[in-house]
Amino acid sequence: MSEPTNLFWYSSVTVQLLFCAHLLWTGLAKKHPIFTLYLGCAVARSLGAFYFTAGFGSALPISYTYFWLWSEPVLLLLQIAVTIEVHSGMWKEYAHIVRPARPVLYFLLLMALVFAAVPVKAELSRFGNIQIQVVLQFECLVTRYISTVLALFLGFSALLFLVVIRNSIRSNFLRHESMLAVYFGIYAVCYFAVNMGWTKKTLVNNYMLSALTLCLVIWISLFRPGPELAPE
Known about the structure:
This protein is mainly alpha-helical and 232 residues long. Helices cover 81% and strands 0% of the residues.
């Protein structure tokens, strides 16, 4: 990898590790165990990637490609699990409100699924002919699709929560869900740019890592232990 990419990568991993330590130190890991596990797995995956790319410069070895291919589905499953954890945690104290609002949430999820599928045809048209390249492109497409769905659904859910729950701006869960939506949104936008071939992958990777690092820094500053809103 290039030196700027390495710098952004190291910074991103360091902030992820600090965030994980922050959750453990403040006791928030007990309230958000899956999110803590996700951060820990993301750090472990990055350390594994360091091992496979060490000494190869800008040309990535095939071993790293296979490592990325098998580890990406694990992180995607954890991202879905984190979304369920955060979303259910935010609404669980308001069961009497969730029941009438549940059709709205289902409709918002359907909107996210449909909207995320709109550019799939254009992305599929850019697939190559080499087998390993096709597998990589397909997994990038799946990552982009899932990230888009999660970002949109979490964003819609946060807006709905803000509208129906009084003084909800003070909710730690609302802040957490909003930042999670931004986090997944960064992945979705960057993977879409790569899939469409709009610019160099290295440049997109640098922008993505720097954006994720900034997002995590803001996230840590907002994510503090505190009393949640009392259900009305």
